[in-house]
Write a structure and sequence with these properties.
Layout lengths: L2 H22 L3 H21 L3 H32 L1
């Protein structure tokens, strides 16, 4: 077993751990942060699998844009809940 296989196994274990943390989190904002971390772990997995175009796309859309949309939605829902 070489260092590359160990690195792949470590990234795989971290992917599962962060996904479980995102699902089991009680607070919505913490769950979003874990989802963003999961996306960044997926970026590293794609880079290890020699798919740099997919990794860049995941970094921009999955980690950046989706996290921004989730956080903006939570902030707007909080404001809308106060008006009701």
């Amino acid at each position: 077993m070489n260092w590359f296989n160990i690195l792949e196994a470590g990234v795989s274990v971290l992917l599962v751990a962060v996904a479980l943390a995102a699902v089991l989190s009680k607070k919505l904002l913490v769950s979003i942060i874990f989802l963003s971390a999961l996306s960044m772990m997926a970026v590293s997995a794609f880079a290890l699998l020699s798919a740099p175009d997919v990794a860049v796309t995941e970094a921009v859309i999955g980690s950046g844009l989706v996290t921004f949309i989730f956080v903006a939605s939570i902030r707007n829902l909080g404001k809308a809940g106060e008006k009701l």
